[in-house]
Request: fold
Amino acid sequence: MPIPLALTDFKMTQATCEVRYEDAYLIYDRTGHVFHEIRGSFTDLKVINASPPQTSFRCDEGTFALEVGQCRFTSQKADTKLEVYAGQCKRFFDSVVGNLDIKVFTRIGLRVLFRKDFDDLQHAETALNSLQLANLGPPERFGIASNPEEVLFRWQNQQLGTTLRFKAESGKIEIVLPPELEADKPEIQKSFNGLVIDIDYYTVAPVERSQWDASAWIPQSLRTIKKHTDAILSR
Reply:
């Protein structure tokens, strides 16, 4: 029996916006300028990995990656409409393109992950299979008598592309508390079972820097993602 699902049943667990460009060798001289410009906009910004072609920053809001041919901002705390998140991305990307003298983006992508928790993995798999995304009939394929644990779709034309992945998965989150907290339980473990929806919405054609504004594009792209994902869930 189909399990009725809508995207509102899922919680957004991660958002990543990434821009790619031709190799920008000014990174070897100007990474410090980017860090200096954005540190006033983010809480407790720190460098966690530094090398000439690749540097990572971490702050309370998320994690930045700056590389010779791409950069991205990832957050596990993004607001549901991605409006605040989009402003954070804009500050970072504006600094990067200004300091590295980037004129054209070869790819712009927004990747969002949603998860609905279930009591166990079996219930998550049941929810996935009730969507009947593949319509393959009896479950045995390639000598394996089970339903698929993951379903992946991809659409692309000359302007835009999207990958949409549904997966039933289980995992464990482990947190080790610092000794100075003197906690009774220095390690915190949490297991989860859920149905994950992973959507990557991206540009295919080159985009002029002057034609793109992260603060407008990201929320608009999220609305497109939600609209079409909901249509698939409710088909």
In short: The mean pLDDT is 90. The chain has one domain: 7-233. The longest helix spans residues 214-233.
